[in-house]
Amino acid sequence: MSAADARPASGPPAAPLLAALAILSAAILAYEVVLVHLLSIAHWSHFAALVISLALLGFGTSGSLLAVLGPALAGRERAAFRWAVLGAALAFDPAYRLAAAIPFDAFELLAIPRQILYLSLTYVVLSVPFLLGGAAVALAFLAEPGRVGRVYAANLLGSGAGAALGLALLAWLPAERLPAAVGLIGLVALAPLARWGALAAPAGLALALLLPPPVIPVSQYKEGQVALELPETRVVAERDGPLGRLTLVAGPTLRYLPGTSLALDQPVPPRPVLYLNGQPLGPRAVAADTALLAMTTAAAAFALPSPRSPRVLILDLGGGSAIWLARANEAAAITVVDPDRRIDDLLAPGTIGPRVERVAADPRGHLHATERRYDRILVSEIGSLHGGASGMAAAGAAYLFTTEGVADLWGALGDDGVLAVTRWALDPPRDMLRLLATVRAVLEDRGLDARRHVALVRGWSTVTLLVSREPLGPDDLAALRNWAEARWFDLTWAPGVSAAEANRFNILSPDLYRIGAEALLGPDPEPFVERYAFRIAPVTDERPFFFHFLTVPGLIELWRSEGRLVLPYFEWGLVVRLLALVQAVPVAAVLILLPLVALPRGAGARRSDAHGTSAASARGGWLFLYFALLGLAFMLLEISAIERLTLFLAQPIYATTVVLAAFLVFAGLGSAAAPRIAAGLDRATGVRAAGRTGPAAGLPILFLAIAALGFLTYAVESALWDHAAGLPLPARMVLAVLLLAPLAFTMGMPFPLGLQRVADRRLAWIPWCWGVNGFLSVIGAAAAPLVALAVGFRGVLALAVAGYLAAGLVFRRL
Q1: Out of 33-47, 465-479, 559-573, 773-787, least confident range
Q2: Whole-prediction pTM value?
């Protein structure tokens, strides 16, 4: 036996080590959830996959370093484990403080080249706690080589608990205090390891209370930050929580009322504005604003004749403007659907009052589950320009505007109902044309002529799409014409409205809204969709990336026609993810693979190999392929599950937490049960009797089970959405966990069984395999959202399943 294989001679017994590992793993996953939250406040909400990727970068790097340092640590793994736990616990808060000091701004990535360097530096700095935590996990494997499954189970079970703990911390603490809180949890992990460890947490708490909290470096380009630059503007209220940082900003020059008419003959009074993570939700409206609100394109919903005392559904509360608009139009009943209850306390007194039913739910989920029918449905809180002009929402799912989402909107309309959707009047238009194409597809699927049911009202800053359940008649069109003309709005499209009439007040040259409406509602819209510079074809729940408009030919055409002005059309959310993947490959290669060159391939062999060094090299190649495939396939399934379940769980933060918890907890249980299940598979298949040796020789059957469960889980998701979309969030969370549990349980087995085979033969190769798995996990986490963008969720699932099946074939050669 080599020095690398020597069993540790001293240190804590297995139970304290496993307890410490579980607590540290909980802290690490809580830190992942916290970083997603902090980066959403500072930048935009496209960093979940990036955070998972940088966590895996740290874990993979730890494996490569330990592979190189393994001989020096032989016999001292448990002492090194203690130091790694301490280092990780102490690194959480300083790493975030240091990263916050790096002048990275996602909005400048293409305009200022050094921002790419800042992104890489941020990536590396934030990975340091994960590097130290990953080192602790790898050292635990080395300290307990005969209990690989138990060590892996402790790691995953603790991680799953940490995902839920991270969500709880978001609800309890201000965002600035979250990294220090995670550090305290990490210090608790020292308690089982040494007597002095019990003093670490109180000492850390005292230190955390003495240190001032870090400053979150919010992007200067977020509207909330821009507003704070105005004279005498200030934050008057702030609320932190799992859904983000809600801020109420007030100032004498803050006169924000989107969609107002050029005919408005009175000044817009200053009103406080609500922001969520720096992006505007809307001005805080009061009763006196009703005359102003009537001069916005959103009021077109009530320009058409309506039943007396209409029933109104408002999707997204914003600053309450839609409530006062509905009241001014004598609504008998108003239902407001918005998942964030914190907004209610920041609205003007009386906004949520009599005749207003408040539903704390996701708009799409409410629409899908409700049996009510409404006379007016308003989707009028247009939010940030970053959803369109600057493309920060390009890589995110927008389930309300998929064909299925628009079908749910249509299904909630009463017999005389009207849907009104207000968006920014972008030039050239993107989202409104795509929405118009989606409405046509939904109505055409029901045998209806969309030309008779649709009207488009455009002002200088916003455009409102009206979709009527009944065909628009002469009285409807006369009322709408008179209403629009009195407010100097252009009736861009309606049955019988000429092109000359459609572009009188807010003149565009060319009027692509009119041209697009004519083409998209005409007999053959496909040529226009194909030729248009942006993607405007309808999207589905399978590929719900509504705000992904840019194409390579379109980008070239825009560059030729507008030169450097093409930059405003870049989809910055997509750029962030692309750069995260591009820089992940070289950074991961340097930090993970390059140090592994120093690892002697024959080191640590427990028994001689009949074919000598060449056979050892060949086995190393198969090991690389096996653990690489597992890392890639696992992350493809995990990240795509987060994206898919965002529909069912309403918010990315809930989907991220639930999926991480489910995958890690049940993969941990699968890891613990893996030896027994593998032995049962061997007995069932009779492979040992056929002369095969080593643990889990019958494991390839397990890979077939993973493939089958992957497709089954995907199929059951649709049924779950159809029958449980209206349940309370806790119930949906439980159902999501139960849905993922069988797949995650099975996915937890291949890695520890493969690692156990390595431990039985070449103990020194364990960190190397850990590093290889981490390397491909980094790539998988960064690539999964982009793969979904290109081929849809089914395509991601197919690639992941192919990866597992390939790993099953490779396992036979380990």
Answers
A1: 559-573
A2: 0.87
Structure tokens at 294: 């009537």
256 residue type, one letter: Y
- At 312 the three-state DSSP class reads strand
Q: What is the structure's pLDDT at 444?
A: 96
How do residues 645-657 score in pLDDT, each as one tens digit? 999 998 888 888 8
Q: Give me the residue label for tokens 């589950």.
A: 369
Q: 246-250 and 490-493 as β-strands: parallel, antiparallel, unpaired?
A: unpaired
Encode 561-591: b = buried (16+ Cβ within 10 Å), e = exposed: eeeeebeebbbbbbbbbbbbbebbeebbeeb
Strands of 279-283's sheet in order across: 234-239, 246-250, 273-276, 279-283
Burial class (CB in 10 A: 0-12, 13-18, 19+), 665: buried
Burial 281-296 (b: 16+ CB within 10 A, else e): bbbbbbeebbebbbbb
414 to each of 306, 315, 351, 374, 375, how far by Cα in Å? Answer: 11, 16, 25, 5, 5
Neighbours of 145 (CB within 10 A): 19
C-alpha of 462 from chain center: 28
Q: Which residues of 406-434 are buried (b: 16+ CB within 10 A; e: fewer)?
A: bbbbbebbbebbbbbbbbbbbebbbbbbb
Please name the amino acid found at residue 398.
Answer: A
Q: Which is more confidently placed, 598 or 120?
A: 120
The answer to whether residue 692 scores a pLDDT higher than 50 is no
The CA distance from 429 to 420, in Å, is 18
Distance CA 765, CA 78 (A): 18
CA dihedral of residues 412, 414, 416, 422 (deg, nearest 10): -20
Please state whether 612 falls in left (phi above 0), alpha (psi between -120 and 50) or beta.
left
**Is residue 207 a contact partner of residue 32, using CB atoms and an 8 Å limit?**
no
* Type of residue numbered 184: L
The answer to whether the CB of 483 falls within 8 A of the CB of 329 is no
pLDDT at 594: 65
Dihedral sign (CA 457, 458, 464, 465): positive
Distance between CA 698 and CA 796 in Å, rounded?
27
Of the candidates 334, 301, 315, 312, the one whose C-alpha atom is nearest the C-alpha of residue 420 is: 301
Contacts 24+ apart (CB under 8 A), 494-501: 494/454, 494/455, 494/456, 495/451, 495/452, 495/455
**Gap between the Cα atoms of 751 and 758, Å rounded:** 11
What does each C-alpha distance from 455 to 333, 485, 509, 703 come to in angstroms? 25, 14, 20, 54
pLDDT in tens, 56-99: 777 777 777 777 776 777 778 888 898 899 899 989 999 999 99
Instruction: Find which of 67-81, 443-457, 591-605, 786-800 is predicted with most confidence, using mean pLDDT.
Output: 443-457
Report the chain's C-alpha Rg in angstroms: 29
Task: Please report, for the chain, how many H helices and E strands are present, in that order.
Answer: 25, 12
What count of other Cβ atoms lies within 10 Å of the Cβ of residue 72? 10
- Residue 427, classed as helix, strand or coil, is coil
CA pseudo-torsion sign 546, 344, 38, 668:
negative
